[in-house]
Each structure stands twice: as structure tokens, then as C-alpha cells.
Recover the amino acids of this structure.
């Protein structure tokens, strides 16, 4: 990914929760060093898509701020359900 | 090699609050956390805080102390962020059968305690206009309230403040051993280097028995998993922020029954429907039962059977929820003392400087701030502001009577 250029601070990076580049940068400067940490402070990645859209963009920003390579960041927690599923379908699961 | 006065093991509410209070008193503190801040129990709970427990004086005083701290932090902004302390309404739901059983035993006593606080059972007719979506089987309710906080901001805020006051926080660092010399702790060995220290605080929650083994003590703590489902943003179909219904009529000391044939009973599932504090979604909970620790790290997995039981319970209580999408589920390991379900706080006899602060089951957020202060008082050798002798590790001596031991494991 190319380095982000120009004044992009007000660009919305997480479309589900309306979180801007600036908010992510502020959180990173305050010590959030992974996607999970940024998520917990800003709520980026907590919406309907669960970070499918913004995870790599947020990690890219963290990488720019902290100098840690994207590949070296701790992986996020992955748990079922992996995609939105109706409550009645969970209740109707058979084992 | 690092050198410090106190090494705190565990980056949950207890460890962070201990580090916060100690650094405020001028101590050098290193906090070691194997994953990240508020990774497990402190990061996966409803954030409800209790102000009072009428059945237990010590708990009550600790809750009151913590609540006062939350109020102060909320007003002063000392933690560097808005902790979202707010009062929220609760509706506890009951059926006719439940109300019948409130005429005797434990639940009679609970009802009396509620009545003493001015909370009374109210017939459905009087609140059905407010909550038309609750199933018609529910015929009674008690309206109460609780305070809630944003758990991530509290934990993060405590970490920031402690760091600002000079604490060092090492995340993703695993403790490999604790060195004891002449009956006194001296070193903490981690995978990133050794720490020379005078005190060690074991606030590792569900992992605290592992740290205990390093100094040769058996801490009777088991990991109890709590699970919740998060829904998509949706218009509100409830008026109360929190709706509770316990279909199995649990004894509060017995949230789950080992080896029960009923999965809900075995997994300790009760129905909690929470409207998020600031967002437009619902959080559906909860379950509580003993599992084994994850083989590596602090990442807990959700179990399909638990998710199914929670979903069934939520739909039974509010049928309209059935078409709402669930976008995520989370689970956290809470430390439960398998002997009496009570916290273990205090310095271990015979190992000078080794202090336990663990076993706080589902009241961690209500206990944490004050408990951190008590631990800091123990380290400062001060008079402890709340007498906590009965929570001391020395209670696990032979022939002591523990009425609840059969609840957590099969004693044959």
C-alpha cells in the first residue's frame, strides 16, 4: 500500500462506526499498538462488518505511527459467528 | 535486567488499579501482562457496577469505595478519557411460578432485601405499556437500577495514568517464574528479561494458579467462562436498558450445575438483554461454567452450544429479537475460587512480598478500584482501610467447612 498523502485526517476510515483517520492516529499516539487496541478505544471495526473493510487500513496507520510492520502485529481474536447471522438461526442450531 | 519495587502480574482491572494506586504513592511499578490490557475477564463483561450488597458487609464497603472512585474519575477526568459512568434502569422479570417460590427460602430473603430498598414486585399490567415486547409468560417485574461504565476506557485510562506516574507496562510478556530467596520474593523471570523486585502482586485472574505454582502454592481457582452475543444496530424494542430473567431460578451461589442433563443448567445460562450504553445494539448474555484454560495465550473461544442456549433464552423472553442479526460473540475467563466462590486477597504467609489479588468472580469491576487500593496499603504496610482477613489465603486450611465445594467439582 502506498503511503497516505495529503490532508486526509478527516477521511472516514471505518464506515460502520464513522471513525476518522485522525481518531485512529490519536489513539495510536496514546499507546494503542494493534487493531484490537485501537478498536477498543475508538470503536473502529466494531460495526456491522467487524473490521473487514477497515482492519488493514487501521493497521497501515498504526504501522506508520509506530514503525511496526503490518505483518508483525498481533492477530485479532476470531470467534464464531464469522458473519452476521439471525438470532433464530443460532437458536435453531443442531448438534 | 529491570529493577523495581513492585511487579504486578496481570493487566486486568485489579492489576491496573494496583499499579495506579502504588504509583500515586510514589512506588516504582512494573506491570507484566501476557496479552494486552483488559484482554480477558476485564474486557468481556457488561460493565455493571454494584453499589451495595446487603448480605455481606465487606463486599458492600469495597463496592462503595470503588463507586466513589468511579465518581471521582468521572468528574475529574483524571484517567484522561470519559469513562461513561451512568445510571441505567433494570427490569427483573418473573413468572407466576417464580413469585410463588418467593414465599420461602433464599428467594424470600432476597425479596425482603429488595423490599427494604423500596423495590417491590409490580404486576405486568402496570408496565406492559412500557415493555409490550416481553413475552406474556412474564407476569411480574421489579424495577431496579445499576451504574455502568465503559470497561475499556476505565482499564486503558488506568494504564495511561499509571504510566504517566512512572509505571512501566509490558504487554505481550509472559511470566516464566518467580524467584524466592530466604522466604522472600526477589525476582520475576519473563520471556523478555528478568525483573528484580521486592513485591509481586499476583493479579493474573484465571491464570493466577499458574503463577502460584511458581512459588509452590496451590491457589484453588478455576476458570469460569462468561459468554455474550452482540447484535447489529437496531431500533430499540425495549425501554429498560437491561432486562434480566433467570428461567432456572438459580441460587446466586450456584450459577451452574456440574453434570446436569439440561444444557442451560450445565452451562449456567440465564437471560440478560442489554441495550448498549452508547451504541444502538443489543448485547445478549450470559453463561457461566467451568472450562479449561486456552492452551496458548489469552484468547478464549465461544462454544456453539452456549451461543445456542443464550439465543434461545433471548428469543423466549423477547420474541421480536429473532430476526435481528448477531455480528459477534465474545467470551472471557473469570477466576472463581472453587472452595467458596470468594476473592483471595492478601500476602501469603511464609512468602514475604507475594501478594494475591484474585478470585473476584463476576464483580471484578465493582471490586477492582478499591481492591487495588487495599493491595497498595498492604504493600505500604499501612493499616488496611477495610478489614479483609476473611479473604486471606490462610482460610484454605484442612478441616475448614466449605458449604459450596460440591458446586464446582464432583466430590464423591
Amino acid at each position: 500500500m502506498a503511503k497516505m498523502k495529503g490532508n486526509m485526517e478527516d477521511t472516514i476510515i471505518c464506515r460502520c462506526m464513522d471513525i476518522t483517520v485522525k481518531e485512529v492516529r490519536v489513539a495510536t499516539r496514546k499507546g494503542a499498538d494493534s487493531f484490537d487496541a485501537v478498536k477498543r478505544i475508538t470503536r473502529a471495526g466494531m460495526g456491522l462488518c467487524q473490521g473487514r473493510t477497515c482492519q488493514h487500513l487501521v493497521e497501515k496507520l498504526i504501522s506508520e505511527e509506530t514503525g511496526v510492520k503490518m505483518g508483525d502485529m498481533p492477530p485479532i481474536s476470531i470467534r464464531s459467528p464469522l458473519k452476521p447471522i439471525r438470532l433464530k438461526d443460532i437458536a435453531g442450531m443442531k448438534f | 535486567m529491570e529493577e523495581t519495587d513492585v511487579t504486578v502480574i496481570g493487566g486486568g482491572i485489579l492489576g491496573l488499579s494496583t499499579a495506579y494506586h502504588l504509583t500515586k504513592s510514589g512506588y516504582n511499578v512494573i506491570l507484566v501482562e501476557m496479552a494486552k490490557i483488559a484482554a480477558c475477564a476485564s474486557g468481556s463483561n457488561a460493565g455493571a457496577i454494584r453499589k451495595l450488597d446487603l448480605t455481606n458487609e465487606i463486599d458492600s464497603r469495597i463496592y462503595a469505595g470503588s463507586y466513589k472512585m468511579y465518581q471521582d474519575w468521572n468528574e475529574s477526568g483524571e484517567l484522561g478519557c470519559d469513562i461513561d459512568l451512568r445510571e441505567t434502569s433494570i427490569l427483573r422479570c418473573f413468572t407466576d411460578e417464580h413469585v410463588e417460590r418467593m414465599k420461602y427460602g433464599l428467594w424470600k430473603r432476597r425479596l425482603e432485601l429488595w423490599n427494604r430498598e423500596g423495590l417491590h414486585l409490580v404486576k405486568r399490567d402496570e408496565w406492559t405499556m412500557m415493555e409490550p415486547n416481553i413475552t406474556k409468560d412474564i407476569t411480574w417485574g421489579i424495577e431496579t437500577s445499576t451504574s455502568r461504565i465503559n470497561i475499556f476506557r476505565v482499564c486503558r485510562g488506568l494504564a495511561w495514568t499509571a504510566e504517566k506516574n512512572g509505571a512501566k507496562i509490558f504487554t505481550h510478556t509472559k511470566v516464566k517464574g518467580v524467584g524466592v530467596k530466604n522466604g522472600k520474593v526477589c525476582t520475576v523471570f519473563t520471556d523478555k528479561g528478568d525483573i528484580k523486585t521486592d513485591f509481586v502482586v499476583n493479579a493474573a485472574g484465571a491464570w493466577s494458579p499458574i503463577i502460584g505454582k511458581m512459588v509452590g502454592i496451590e491457589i484453588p481457582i478455576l476458570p469460569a467462562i462468561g459468554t455474550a452475543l452482540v447484535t447489529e444496530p437496531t431500533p430499540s424494542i425495549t425501554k429498560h436498558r437491561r432486562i434480566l430473567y433467570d428461567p432456572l431460578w438459580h441460587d446466586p451461589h450456584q450459577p451452574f450445575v456440574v453434570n446436569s442433563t439440561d444444557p442451560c443448567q450445565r452451562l449456567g445460562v440465564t437471560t440478560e438483554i442489554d441495550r448498549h450504553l452508547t451504541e444502538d445494539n443489543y448485547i445478549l448474555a450470559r453463561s457461566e461454567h467451568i472450562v479449561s484454560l486456552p492452551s496458548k495465550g489469552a484468547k478464549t473461544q465461544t462454544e456453539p452450544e452456549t451461543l445456542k442456549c443464550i439465543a434461545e433464552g433471548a428469543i423466549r423472553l423477547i420474541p421480536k429479537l429473532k430476526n435481528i442479526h448477531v455480528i459477534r460473540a465474545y467470551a472471557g475467563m473469570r477466576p472463581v475460587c472453587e472452595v467458596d466462590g470468594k476473592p483471595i486477597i492478601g500476602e501469603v504467609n511464609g512468602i514475604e512480598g507475594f501478594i494475591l489479588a484474585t478470585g473476584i468472580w463476576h464483580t471484578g469491576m465493582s471490586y477492582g478500584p478499591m481492591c487495588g487500593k487495599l493491595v497498595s496499603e498492604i504493600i505500604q504496610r499501612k493499616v488496611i482501610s477495610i478489614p479483609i482477613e476473611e479473604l486471606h489465603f490462610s482460610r484454605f486450611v484442612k478441616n475448614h467447612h466449605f458449604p459450596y465445594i460440591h458446586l464446582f467439582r464432583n466430590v464423591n
Notes: The first strand of chain B starts at residue 2 and ends at 9. The radius of gyration of chain B is 21 Å. Chain B has a mean pLDDT of 89. The longest helix of chain B spans residues 57-76.
